[in-house]
Amino acid sequence: MSMMRPRVPDERGQGPLVPARGQVRRLVLGGVGGGVVARSRDFTRQALVDWGWLPATTATAKAVVEDVLLVVSELVTNACLHAGGPLELRLHYAGSFLRLEVSDGSPVAPRPRTPHRIGSPGGHGMYIVERLSHAWGVQEHDDGSGKTVWADLMPAV
């Protein structure tokens, strides 16, 4: 099963972009225990430094970096709260976009709370992911061992 948010098509008017050749970073999180959100943010921050996104030199670039770090936090937190914990974080950087992927062992796909209720506790994670990403979706693992939730973000121009 693949679920996608078709809110914003790519430049050709088609669906979400798929990772092309580029740089990939992997962080194994299964069995790590506490601190996985901070560890995931630190790992992502270092990748952004290596890829030239940091230090950000404009207000727009700083905002994009903060969006990336917030989306990573929300995806990992969601896996912690609702899917038995994240197994792996993958970052795919293809120059024109960055794909964030968090894999877990649950087959249950996340869904933004509809309608979103500002001021009510909980249920904001996937709403934030939806609002900050160019596209997002869920890919079930072929072997039935869980799923990967992904989000695409664009670098500041």
UniProtKB/TrEMBL annotation:
Q: Domain Histidine kinase/HSP90-like ATPase, which positions?
A: 56-150
A family per Pfam: HATPase_c_2
Domain of life, per UniProt, equals Bacteria
Q: What keywords would UniProt list here?
A: Kinase, Serine/threonine-protein kinase, Transferase
Q: Does the keyword Kinase apply?
A: yes
Record Gene3D superfamilies: Histidine kinase-like ATPase, C-terminal domain (3.30.565.10)
Q: Molecular function terms in GO for this entry?
A: protein serine/threonine kinase activity
- Stated name of the protein: Histidine kinase/HSP90-like ATPase domain-containing protein
